[in-house]
């Protein structure tokens, strides 16, 4: 019973506060004949009268320019060229694609991992870097990993640049449709 007795004195105080707040004019009744049912008009009117606030102005003030991945040909071309490999990490904002370890099945003790780093959104030879790591494991599954220099790096880079150029010119889809018409969808 002591809990109920402690609530009773605060109840009249609550009603008194509510009465005072409503009598101060903080809450105004609105007439549907005067107030527009359109939300945008009400917001605009409130802002003009200085009764509201806006978060941001709707225009960008920063100096950054962000392109979406679907509009970046270099990014799309990289995914197209590496589509046969399982991907471990793909981060457009960080500008990196990392594949899983891949072996062709001929040798279970060797695998490669390809990393593509984007240095620019422009289709240029110095706009991306391709890094290849090779993992070699012995029969006890003790593996060593090393960054290797091989012609595969340049081949992957060249394939990405060629594909990006074709995408930019709109030729890739046209060539793909022609190939499917000629050889089928295999």
Main beta-sheet annotation:
5 strands, antiparallel
The shape, in one word, is elongated
Count of extended strands: 5
Strand arrangement, major sheet: 1-2-3-4-5
Classify the helix fraction into a percent range.
25-40%
Uncertain stretches = 58-66
Distance between the termini: 80 Å
Radius of gyration over alpha carbons?
A: 32 Å
The helix/strand class is alpha+beta
Overall pLDDT, averaged?
Answer: 78
Number of helices, where a helix is a run of at least 4 consecutive DSSP H or I residues: 6
Strand coverage percent: 15-25%
Quick structural overview:
The chain has helices at 2-7, 10-23, 39-48, 73-81, 151-169, 171-183; strands at residues 87-91, 96-99, 110-118, 128-137, 143-148.
Describe the fold and architecture.
This protein is of the alpha+beta class and 186 residues long. The protein has a domain at 69-183. It has helices at 2-7, 10-23, 39-48, 73-81, 151-169, 171-183, and strands at residues 87-91, 96-99, 110-118, 128-137, 143-148. A five-stranded antiparallel beta sheet has the order 1-2-3-4-5, covered by helices on one side. The longest helix is centred in the C-terminal third of the chain and has 19 residues, at 151-169. The model is unreliable at 58-66 (pLDDT under 50).
List keywords for this structure.
single chain, 186 residues, alpha+beta, 5-stranded antiparallel sheet, 6 helices
Question: Layout of helices and strands, plus pairs?
Answer:
Layout: H1 2-7, H2 10-23, H3 39-48, H4 73-81, E1 87-91, E2 96-99, E3 110-118, E4 128-137, E5 143-148, H5 151-169, H6 171-183
Antiparallel strand pairs: 1-2, 2-3, 3-4, 4-5
Helix pairs in contact: 4-5
């Amino acid at each position: 019973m002591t809990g109920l007795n402690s609530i009773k004195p605060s109840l009249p105080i609550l009603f008194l506060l509510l009465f005072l707040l409503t009598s101060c004019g903080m809450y105004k009744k609105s007439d549907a004949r005067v107030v527009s049912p359109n939300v945008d008009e009400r917001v605009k009117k409130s802002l003009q009268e200085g009764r509201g606030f806006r978060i941001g102005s709707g225009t960008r003030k920063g100096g950054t320019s962000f392109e979406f991945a679907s509009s970046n040909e270099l990014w799309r071309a990289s995914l197209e060229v590496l589509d046969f490999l399982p991907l471990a990490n793909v981060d457009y904002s960080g500008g990196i694609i990392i594949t899983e370890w891949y072996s062709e099945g001929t040798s279970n003790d060797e695998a490669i991992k390809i990393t593509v780093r984007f240095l620019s959104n422009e289709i240029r030879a110095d706009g991306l870097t391709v890094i290849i790591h090779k993992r070699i494991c012995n029969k006890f599954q003790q593996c060593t990993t090393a960054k290797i220099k091989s012609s595969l790096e340049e081949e992957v880079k060249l394939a990405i640049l060629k594909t990006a150029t074709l995408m930019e010119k709109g030729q890739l889809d046209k060539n793909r449709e022609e190939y499917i018409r000629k050889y089928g969808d295999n």
